[in-house]
Amino acid sequence: MEILFYIAATVAVAAGLSVVLQQKPVYSALSLIVVLCALAVVYLLLGAEFMAMIQVIVYAGAIMVLFVLVIMLLNARQEAPTDRSRVARWLGPPLLAAFVLEVLTLVWRAFPANPATVAAPSGGPRPIGELLFRGYVLPFEATSILVLVAVLGAVVLAKKEF
Question: Measuring CA to CA, how many Å separate 123 from each of 16, 47, 111, 127, 129?
Fold first, then answer.
């Protein structure tokens, strides 16, 4: 199981780097689908089957289909190469190192030294559904409206005049 975790984590990190480094937006979106599927494998290894299926169905399925649709509607081509400034060249690597160090420090503090002290998650889909549709119904609906407006905006931008 540990080997499978390291394989899934390596795939997720490599595909995450590919999302950022790709020149074509469609390839970047496809790399993001790989990241989301690798995270679903990690959820399965943690025993969170419901979260793994939601990850694949909602994120890798529905939302990424919307992303690819919008990219294709906008007929996005290869990104034009940009000329980075001297400030970005000199400040970028140290700031990136500081960011990575901060993230590693937070992860190190978040996980206890003895994993046996962590309580197993209880529940399943019912508590998640109750929390989502009772406690957080307004943000849930606002997010759905935001996604709808984004897709409509992409359609308006991609509309060709005749």
Answer: 30, 12, 22, 6, 11
Confidence band of 53 (pLDDT split at 50, 70, 90)? confident
Provide the 3-class DSSP secondary structure of residue 90. helix
At 6, which CATH number? 1.20.120.1200
pLDDT exceeds 90 at position 82: no
Question: How much is the pTM?
Answer: 0.55
Number of domains in the chain: 1
**Angle at CA of residue 37, ends 35 and 38, nearest 5°:** 65
pLDDT (0 to 100) of residue 125: 75
Q: Which two tokens stand for residue 37?
A: 């599927």
Identify whether 58 is part of a domain. Answer: yes
CB contact set of 41 (below 8 Å; sequence gap of 6+) = 4, 8, 52
Length of the chain: 162
